[in-house]
Amino acid sequence: MRSGIKAMLATAAVVVTMTGCGVVNDPGSTGLSYDGSRAAALSLRDEVQETLSSAAVLSSSDDEVRIACGDDAAQFGGTRTIVVAADFDRAEWLDQAAASFEQRQGWKIQKKVAADGSSEATTAVSMVSADGYYLRLGEFSTAPQGGPVVVLSASGPCVEAPPE
User: Fold this and answer.
1) Which of 57, 59, 114, 148 is deepest in the core (most CB within 10 A)?
2) Does the pLDDT at position 62 exceed 60?
3) HEC profile for 72-112?
């Protein structure tokens, strides 16, 4: 079961990261390297995680992918899955994260609620910057690791791919 959830989250990370490709830069136009894009995306993800109280975080794990997004171009995608305490208010935290990015110039925010209409509570937040960075924060009510989880995904813009 645990490997099934990990596979599902890894697949979701790739899909979510690829949906962040909405802003495709000319890989040579940004002047940003793949490593620079990766570092900036990870910094954004870490900044969001810092808004979680340390008491709420039980454990975390990271996954990274490199996604081809054109000839000789790639995009970094990284996902952090965080097991949180059962009493942690995930919907409130997602709303607070959305509010903090709504104040930033150049960011578009989209909040999602339960697809089945069973709740108006926020279940995910997508944030896209004008310069091609994409963050997605989502929550799952249960996890095989023993508690609810939040998933923080971050990707950078499409840039010139480094040699493999």
Assistant:
1) 148
2) yes
3) CEEEEEEEEEEEECCCCCHHHHHHHHHHHHHCCCCEEEEEE
- Please, what is the end-to-end C-alpha distance for the chain in angstroms? 33
- Chain-centre distance of CA 1, in angstroms? 23
User: Alpha-carbon distance 154 to 127, whole Å?
Assistant: 9
Amino acid (1-letter code) at residue 65? V
Q: pLDDT band at 157, cuts 50/70/90?
A: very high
Instruction: Note the pLDDT of residue 7.
Output: 36
pLDDT in tens, 25-55: 444 445 789 999 999 999 999 999 998 888 9
> Is the CA virtual torsion 29, 35, 40, 44 positive or negative?
positive
How many angstroms separate the CA atoms of 25 and 29, rounded? 7
The answer to whether 99 touches 51, Cβ cutoff 8 Å, is no
- Please tell me the number of Cα atoms within 13 Å of 52 on its side-chain side: 28
> What's the Cα-to-Cα distance from 41 to each of 3, 36, 127, 142, rounded to whole Å?
26, 9, 12, 27
Dihedrals phi, psi of 35, to nearest 5 degrees: -65, -40
